[in-house]
Design brief:
Blueprint: H1 3-10, E1 15-16, E2 18-24, E3 27-33, E4 37-41, E5 44-51, H2 57-61, E6 65-70, H3 76-83, E7 95-97, E8 103-105, E9 110-122, E10 125-137, E11 144-146, E12 149-151, H4 161-164
Antiparallel strand pairs: 1-11, 2-3, 2-6, 4-5, 5-10, 6-9, 7-8, 9-10, 11-12
Length: 170
C-alpha cells in the first residue's frame, strides 16, 4: 500500500484537534494529536494513539494517567506549540494540575482526565485506552483538522436543527 495515498485518503476524515498531557518522573509532557475517539459510555472510555517512534512514547508507556484536551477554534496557536518538538511546551503557560499531577490546559472545548485502562499494539502506534475520571465541557467551537490543515465547522440553520437532530449509536 502506498503510504502517501493512504495518508491522503485518511485526511478526508475531518477530526477534532487534541492535546494529550501527562507527567512522568516530575516532567510535564504534552503533544498535539488528532487520533482521539470515544470507545464506551459505560464504563466511560476514550482512546488515542501515539507513534512508537515518538520521543514521548516512554512517558506515556510508564504513567498511569493522562488528560485529553479537545481544543477550541481559538487554540490553533496552542496546537502548533504542542506539535513543535524540542521546546518546553509548558513554558509561560497558565495551566492547572490534576490530583494525579497531570497538567490540565484551560479554555478548551472539552477536557477528559483519564487513568490508563489498556495499552494495545497498533502497528507503528500504541493505542492508549483511558477510563474517564473527570471531565469539563464548554460550548466553544472546536478546532478541526481536515486534509492536512486546520478547518472550522460550518453552522447549520438552527430553524430546523431540532427535527434534523439524530442520536449517534456508539
Amino acid at each position: 500500500m502506498d503510504a502517501k495515498a493512504l495518508r491522503a485518503a485518511l485526511g478526508s476524515f475531518a477530526t477534532g484537534v487534541t492535546i494529550v498531557t501527562t507527567c512522568h518522573n516530575g516532567r510535564n509532557v504534552g503533544l498535539t494529536a488528532n487520533s482521539f475517539n470515544s470507545v464506551s459510555l459505560d464504563p466511560p472510555l476514550v482512546l488515542w494513539s501515539l507513534a512508537k517512534k515518538s520521543s514521548n512514547i516512554d512517558a506515556f508507556m510508564n504513567t498511569g494517567a493522562f488528560a485529553v484536551h479537545i481544543l477550541s477554534a481559538e487554540q490553533e496557536d496552542l496546537s502548533n506549540r504542542f506539535a513543535t518538538s524540542g521546546i518546553d511546551k509548558f513554558a509561560d503557560l497558565d495551566f492547572e494540575v490534576s490530583e494525579e499531577k497531570v497538567p490540565l490546559l484551560r479554555e478548551c472545548a472539552a477536557r477528559f482526565e483519564c487513568q490508563i485502562a489498556y495499552r494495545y499494539d497498533g502497528g507503528d502506534h500504541i493505542i492508549f485506552v483511558g477510563e474517564v475520571l473527570n471531565l469539563d465541557h464548554s460550548q466553544k467551537e472546536p478546532l478541526l483538522f481536515h486534509q492536512g490543515k486546520y478547518a472550522r465547522k460550518t453552522g447549520i440553520d438552527q430553524r430546523g436543527a431540532e427535527e434534523n437532530r439524530r442520536d449517534l449509536n456508539y
